[in-house]
Design a protein that fits this description.
four-stranded mixed beta sheet, alpha/beta, seven-stranded mixed beta sheet, Rossmann fold
């Protein structure tokens, strides 16, 4: 399973450090399945899936078919769509609502058994982590720390802005007892290959430690 963690996919228009070539190599293009963060909101979800598909077209990844798992889709149909997908996208938006949607429909094992590519964008990237962290920076009432779907053995903070003291202090406080905590700026991405080797794209990725933020 290949996994990508993006903060904001449409900010990666420069295709830094061979990202375009890597995406082309990784993706088969028969079908992509989208798991929304607001599965009841069709118009909003379609808007964002269109934007994501437009980004992939810019890097010459054109899917023949795309499927959105709205809340009214039957559970067995959801699983079959995921099992037959070449790519799965955990979309951005409401992190906790997406998490609850996946748990409610018991899709986590199906995701874990994926043989293709899984892409997590913002909220989706957070939920992919072994330990998921949603900080108050992202317009929630408190910092949430919970067991994610363990698709990657790291924890991430998305939409990271180096120099934003409030965000930095929040992350340092939450991450003080955690290993393998990374911050991803909107201009960067992380890829894991089948052997769980990590590759960084862009210069906006920071590993968090007790000493602060280390770039790259």
């Amino acid at each position: 399973m290949i996994r990508y963690l993006f903060s904001k996919i449409d900010c990666l228009l420069e295709f830094e450090n061979g990202l375009k070539e890597t995406l082309n190599k990784d993706f088969k293009t028969n079908k992509i399945v989208f798991i929304p963060s607001t599965p009841d909101e069709h118009l909003k979800t379609r808007k964002y899936t269109t934007e994501i598909l437009d980004y992939f077209r810019k890097v010459d990844v054109v899917f023949r078919d795309s499927v959105i798992l709205y809340s009214e889709v039957e559970n067995e149909v959801m699983r079959k769509e995921l099992e037959s997908a070449d790519a799965i996208c955990l979309m951005g938006g409401d992190t906790l609502q997406q998490y609850d949607f996946i748990k409610k429909n018991d899709l986590q094992i199906t995701l874990k058994n994926c043989k293709g590519v899984i892409v997590g964008i913002s909220a989706g990237a957070i939920n992919m982590c072994k330990t998921a962290v949603l900080t108050q920076i992202h317009e929630v009432d408190q910092n949430y720390v919970y067991s994610g779907f363990n698709l990657v053995d790291i924890t991430v903070e998305v939409h990271f802005e180096r120099g934003n003291k409030v965000q930095e202090e929040t992350v340092l406080d939450v991450a003080k007892n955690m290993d393998h905590f990374y911050c991803i700026a909107d201009s960067s991405a992380i890829r894991f290959d089948d052997e769980n080797k990590m590759r960084l794209f862009g210069d906006g990725i920071y590993k968090v430690s007790s000493h602060g933020f280390m770039q790259g």
